From TrEMBL:
It catalyses: a ribonucleoside 5'-phosphate + H2O = a ribonucleoside + phosphate. Its cofactor is a divalent metal cation. Pfam families: SurE (PF01975). A divalent metal cation binds at residues 8-9, 43, 96. InterPro entries: SurE, SurE-like_Pase/nucleotidase, SurE-like_sf. This is 5'-nucleotidase SurE. The keyword DNA repair does not apply. Belongs to the SurE nucleotidase family. GO terms for cellular component: cytoplasm.
Amino acid sequence: MRILVTNDDGINAPGLAVLEEIARAVAGDDGEVWVVAPAFEQSGVAHCISYTHPTMIAKLGPRRYAAEGSPADCVLAGLYDVLQGARPELVLSGVNRGNNSAENALYSGTVGGAMEAALQGLPAIALSQYMGPLSEDLPSLFDAAIGHGKDLIEKLLKDAIWDQGDYRLFYNVNFPPVGRDAVKGLKVAPQGYRKDTFFGVEPHISPSGRKFLWITGGPQHLPTAPGTDAAVNLDGYISVTPMRADLTAHDALDKVRKALE
């Protein structure tokens, strides 16, 4: 199997090294794992592409490249430059340091990389590791992902739905903030919503007198609705959320059509 790997934490991120090992185990001895990841951290860039300026790319080693762009840029670079049209059979994005459950998925470059792969007609999985007090003293912060990543990916490839639609399915996976032995299992869960948790800004004045704004996030351990992704993660389960890039509010179409047409 030929697998393309990317992330949004950057080419030197420990979560990327974890995913490379998982990908090599999934690909097998005769497989190929290609890495095209951002040269610098790209957290929070979502599905951004560098449409108005060029992206420099550098080869760092065999099948290993860094691109000065977003995860979606890296997927494009991998497909149309690095692999020279030899399409991968799977694209993996992550393992992100921190969860991409609930509203975080909308901002996530990790999810954005998987989304771009899906738009390119490829099977894709985004993988993220929830962090918390129970994972701080483990041998690795990514212990749950290390312990369950390979089996989970193989199960998705074997048993999940991989359609061929215009906006084809891709999968958002979040490992819970516990050690591998404390993981209770897997749950297919919809994207949740953390109520009263929003991004904001915190202003600071530099020594030169100029104002700068830091983006601030909200609490990550507030439960979402029962059965949704963050809720099951905080209960010790791996969440698997099927997603599409189609942003249409299908549940509202008929009502809006009756109101406006």
